[in-house]
Amino acid sequence: MRLGLPDSPLMRVARPEDILLPPKVWFVVVTLFVAFVANLLPLSGVLLALRPDFFALVLLYWAIHQPRWIGVGAGWICGLVTDVVEANLFGQHALAYAILAFSAEYFHRRVLRFPLWQQSLHVFALLVFTQIIVLVLRLMSGAAPPSPVFLLSTVTSVLLWPPLSVFLQWPQRVRSLTD
Amino acid sequence: MIGNVTSLPKEPPRFFNRGPSALARLTFFGVASFALMFVDAKFQTLEAVRKGIATVVYPIQQLALLPGAAIASAGEFFESRAALREENAVLKKQLLDNAQVEQASRAAQLDAQRWRAIAGASQTLTVKSQPSRVLYLGRDPYSQKFFIERGGSQSFEAGAAVIDGLGLLGQLTRVHPLLAEVTLITDKEAVVPIRIERNGIRAIMRGRGARQVPELSFVAGNADIVEGDIALTSSIDGLFPANVRVCRVSKIVRERENDFAKIECLPFAGVTSADDVLVLDRPTPLPPRPTEEVAGKTSVKRKGS
How far apart are CA B301 and CA B305, in angstroms? Predict the structure, then answer.
């Protein structure tokens, strides 16, 4: 049973039994890069608090769908770049993103069996876990606790998961459907 | 059998070599992360790496600024002539208002310099400054930082004070080739030596993070500080140039059971709104503080004698 999204073939992601074209390496790299730039948008205040973590989302998507390309190591490097750009403690996002990629690798067979909205619940748990890791590391290193508004970014991230999944799978799917 | 073909597993069977297991890789990278965090928190050795990555990432950051800049320039284009004229008039009036004060202060400075020359003091009152502008705010919700532009010829130095038109904003903490990181005085790690303008009482202002206003710490409960007092930077320890406005005392709580008063103060500078900023050069280095060792030796001697 699928709830929430219409059941047209274009509006859902493929199940494990569906046959998809293999993704292109350049597409994975470009989407990760675009997500990274999107994270850098000069927002502040409420907009910043609401901004989904695009980088973590796209990373998670590829870690779930292509765990052999985007795994723990790739997650770690992405986290390291985030740490430098955000000018904070080296290694905290690296650790969080590595754990994110690991849990994606661990859960990917299970997650893909669910319809999108149920996948979102898995994603929510993983992202909250990531945020908690960063929170604990920062509090241990003596930072002031942020306002709880920053948990909202996890909510917006999760809301973005279904459309993002549909979009990122598009190039792999379109031709296989018309054939 | 054919039904099984469509549900082929996505992963190849185990007998292909797939490298170390996910858990092994996680352990490896986890240990690497903790090592990095430890080294970064305790030593300065990673600054070079950080600088390198920051320089590589800088053009990408500029790319992310483009949409915002485009919207801003479009807005500027449509800003009406009348609004500009009005602003111009206000600024002219401000300039006139300030002119008298400025001339008087110049004369006073010269006076003071003459007196200092007579007294043989070497300290000067004026500080060189370099203009810059805020590029973007820090995205880390745990710290209060922003980034300012650094021109090719600008010689920024970590530790320099950063001010806006109203008062002290913060301190340069990292200088990259094309930009510099400013830690605001509201950051939890920020500490500013201050002096109360009215009576010269010295204290230390500490930031307490985004959600709380800074505090003057370790001020005796009976110190003569009242609400509304203005705190200026003090040049003690040679960290900041003297006499930059920092904050206004907004609330004082004196409790009998505490030796220290709890003094909250509101920064003058637009810590959330600053746009154009000035980077003040660090004051001339002071002679080094007499070392603890000397004191220890003399006390030992005293013991012996």
Answer: 6
Across the interface, of A84, A89, A143, the residue whose CB is closest to B54 is A84
- pTM recorded for the entire structure: 0.71
Residue of A nearest to B36 (CA): A91
Q: Class assignment of domain A23-165? A: mainly alpha
Sign of torsion, CA A144 A145 A151 A157? positive
H-type alpha helices, A40-113: 45-50, 54-65, 72-85, 92-111
The DSSP H or E segment spanning A170 is helix A152-178
- Beta strands B191-196; B230-233: pairing state: antiparallel
Compute the C-alpha angle A108/A167/A69, nearest 5°: 40
Cβ distance of B32 and A105 shorter than 8 Å: no
Residue A38 corresponds to which tokens in the numbers above?
């999107």
Give B2's DSSP letter: H
The one-character DSSP state at B293 is H
Q: Which two tokens stand for residue B256?
A: 């009998």
pLDDT digits (tens, 9 = 90+) for B78-117: 777 788 888 899 999 888 888 888 888 888 888 887 777 7
Torsion of CA B29, B30, B34, B39, to 10 degrees: 0
Chain B residue with CA closest to A90: the answer is B37
Q: Please state the ipTM of this predicted complex.
A: 0.79
Instruction: Read off the pLDDT of residues A51-66 as tens digits, 9 standing for 90 and up.
Output: 888 999 999 999 998 8
Which chain A positions have a beta carbon within 8 Å of B208's beta carbon? 144
